[in-house]
Amino acid sequence: MSDSAVLAAPISGPVPRIALVGNPNCGKTALFNALTGARQKVANYPGVTVERKVGELLSPAGARVQLIDLPGTYSLRARSPDEEVTRDVVLGRFEHESPPDVMVCVADATNLRLHLRLVLELKKLGRPIILALNMMDVAEARGCRVDASALSAALGVPVVPTVAIKRTGVVGLLDQIDRSMMVMAGDGPPAPCGWSEPSARDLRAYHQEVEAVLAAALRDAGKPSLATQRIDAALLHPAIGLPFLFLVLFLMFQAVFAWAALPMDMIDGALGWVQAAAGAALPDGMLKSLITDGIIAGVGSVVIFLPQILVLFLFILILESTGYMARAAFLLDRLMGGVGLHGRAFIPLLSSFACAVPGIMAARTIENRADRLATIMIAPLMTCSARLPVYTLIIAAFVPERTVAGGMIGLQGLVMFTLYAAGILSALAVAFVLKRTIFKGAREPLLMELPAYRLPSPRDILIGLLERARIFLARAGTVIFAIMILLWFLGTFPGAPDGATGPAIDYSFAGMLGHALAPLLAPIGFTWQIAIALVPGMAAREVAVAALGTVYALSETGDALSGSLSGVLAADWSLPTALSLLAWFVFAPQCVSTLSVVKRETNSWFWMLVMIAYMTLLAYGAAFVTFRLSSALLGG
Amino acid sequence: MTAPLSGSVSSPVARMTPGPAPGTSADPPPRFEGCRLGTLRKGQRAVVTGLDESAVATPLPPGELERRMIEMGLIEGARVEILHEGFPGSDPLAVRIDDHTLALRRAEAHAVLVALG
């Protein structure tokens, strides 16, 4: 079954829908990847399993099937907005969606005692279920022997053993999907839903049933993962755990610089070549200016940061898929508790280093509303990858490329680390204030599984990275593209009057806007070019860099264009101005997508407005202090 | 499975039920003289004998903490072992429960009644 054949197949009648349901850490996402490959669509922004992912596949019988990956849950008794999605989909409570035709329940074969209860709950729905008995390889390695046919008999559902990360058992699962759909078609309407929210008494009864099933099907319980115990003995050690975690984070930020340098140079070279070629091929005039100064300079200055964003996501994906992320939450729970945050807030906050949008969405896994709101409010203070272009640009222009501490640490990386640290510390401070004022109350309990360590599958990491690259490039190709054209228009019209002495942009709409804002921003040392760039920067922070690129490209005359943007900035700005802008972007009044997701996730304009107000205030204050202090110290 | 549970899982303490606990004297708050998971130290093993969330301050509605704990495998008869303690304050705990490992805070672990062994 080739990709193109699947995608080109005509839509005829309703496509059968299959939902993947399972506990967190059961390998559900890996199974989804194994079944659909890269043929998956992620609605909006992906957290690991926060958003609903949909993929398509052809069953062996030739039926087109839609596969839905649902957020992991321990129970249909949803406790968080994330788990509510799962519950509502399987119960058919979503308005424009019929319930899934077949549910594939994924369970970790090494952890059936915990995972089988969900199967029993799903059985109550009266719809066809298939149990994918995942991680069979790990189970075997630990001497855990499960009799799949006995399990199937005891549960009364078909059982298919799988090893999702090695794509073993996928064919068997597809065959079973076909059989289940056929049985379903012959059965007529499904049995009425017999599920109701279980009480503690019902849960104990489920648990007893699980024990009975295990007595019939579990031949040998095997031993717990020795490797996991040994690794945890070191990584959760009171003296080693936290230093190791900070080392990992430090290496991550160093790698963002070091590993991305070469591909970024290559993209830079390619862009320069395209710009030159387009400039040579096109006749002088408006069109040439639009294409070279507007589109290529603008979009190009954002695309160049793709390598850094991918390196960052690579680390996050690896930390998540190895199981270390839960350890990080464990290690930080007590420290974060000091400012009133839940250990689980670590995952949304770390995701926010990539982008605040998936981070804020990942806060759905926090059940308590006050804890969740506090996490959402500080998530944009984590330095998202969209700020990276701004930092990189200014650091490249103003921080010399040399090493300190005997050649061990790059100075540029160190400055970058400081900026990230400033974001984290201010986030903790804000959380501290919030939890003592608006969000008073006891913390939500911590009940979090620490999954066995696992080697990540390169294929799954690659699929995850491709997804991120696709989303980033789609943004560069749509939102940023449109803004760049608008900005070029504002920066070009109306043209300079005859006999004008300054650069043309001075007389344009953008120039007028920048000059109007300039007095407001002068106390913090911003030039009018920065003032212009900040306006589109509201759409997305990285656009500020693209905007600077466009503004300077349009304001330079003739051959000055050939210099790189950082070179232009180094010549044009004072050091206090650069530092002030860095301080501004640590707090950077948030981008429109962050604000809209805050509005959506909190279901309130109020929290969105609070966020705008407090972040703008912090940004202005920090930039003011930085500018005044550095001006005084540097004698500027 | 909708059949009512046969009284096999009688926990040694009454849960959120008002009135005297069955089989004990008439004093309303049933006393439990055994051990609580939250008092164990690293390396200690025990068996869960019951859940008593009344001992814990929680923002959750009554009965919710108990249900979550059961869902995470903390149920009568489960074998537990303290694998790791967090820092500082030896909190939270990493507890092996039968086949899996759970992180929870000492404060909430006080809701789990255990018998050392």
UniProtKB/TrEMBL annotation, chain A:
InterPro entries on file: Fe2_transport_prot_B_C (IPR011640), FeoB_GTPase (IPR050860), G_FEOB_dom (IPR030389), Gate_dom (IPR011642), GTP-bd (IPR006073), P-loop_NTPase (IPR027417)
Sequence ranges assigned to domain FeoB-type G in this UniProt record: 15-183
Membrane-crossing residue ranges in chain numbering: 240-262, 295-319, 339-361, 373-399, 411-434, 472-493, 505-526, 538-555, 575-598, 605-627
Top-level division of the source organism's lineage: Bacteria
PROSITE patterns, sorted: G_FEOB
A Pfam family matched in the record: FeoB_C
GO cellular component, one term: plasma membrane
Subcellular location: Cell inner membrane
Main location as per UniProt: membrane
Keyword annotations from UniProtKB, A to Z: Cell inner membrane, Cell membrane, GTP-binding, Ion transport, Iron, Iron transport, Membrane, Nucleotide-binding, Plasmid, Transmembrane, Transmembrane helix, Transport
GO molecular function, one term: ferrous iron transmembrane transporter activity
Keyword flag Transit peptide: no
Membrane topology recorded in Swiss-Prot or TrEMBL: Multi-pass membrane protein
Protein name: Fe(2+) transporter FeoB
Native source species: Azospirillum humicireducens
Lineage: Bacteria, Pseudomonadati, Pseudomonadota, Alphaproteobacteria, Rhodospirillales
